[in-house]
Amino acid sequence: FTIALSLAIVLLLPTPFVKVGAGAIFPFWIAVAVNFVASMIGGLIAFVLGRWLFRESIQEAIKNDRRMVNIESALGEDAMRISILVRLSPILPDEWLNYIMSATPVSLRVFLVSNTSSLVYCLIYAYYGHALGSIALSRSGMAGLTQSTGGLAMLLLGIIATVIATVIVTRTSIRVLKDAIGEEE
Predict the structure, then answer these.
(1) What is the pLDDT of residues 49-88, one digit of tens each?
(2) Fewer beta carbons within 10 angstroms: which end of the chain, N or C?
(3) Are 123 and 97 in contact (CB under 8 A)?
(4) Shortest CA distance to 181 belongs to which of 105, 79, 60?
């Protein structure tokens, strides 16, 4: 599963549904580990490929996008902070971001450290998958949750808390990133 997910990242396939699927298939912490390891391995392979094989074509593709030019400029000034903020914001899908960052002045060390921030979304995707899998893959479905005292309430509270945490992380990272790259809201 990890190898397939890593390959999907390298091939720029949309992986969030696969990461949620890991949460439904595997126990929660194993799903987090699978998603995180795949994000790190796939991201590293994509970054290396982008840096040494596709750098010029990536730079050509992003040179006319004002937002990308602003991000690249900000990366030159504060690579670590901007790299982490871009990772945490939904401005670009992670799969594309690995290649885009390979065409910027970001070092491999900064890329790897900033890529560890993907742990936030690995936790979220695994939790969504775990919650959905608890319902979809159990014999009793929703009935099993309603039979236990507070089971359904705990599931709903967990989902609501995860959604709120996702919104807070996303909004904060977008706001700080916009300030850093000089975009108006």
Answers:
(1) 999 999 888 888 878 877 777 777 777 777 888 888 878 7
(2) C
(3) no
(4) 79
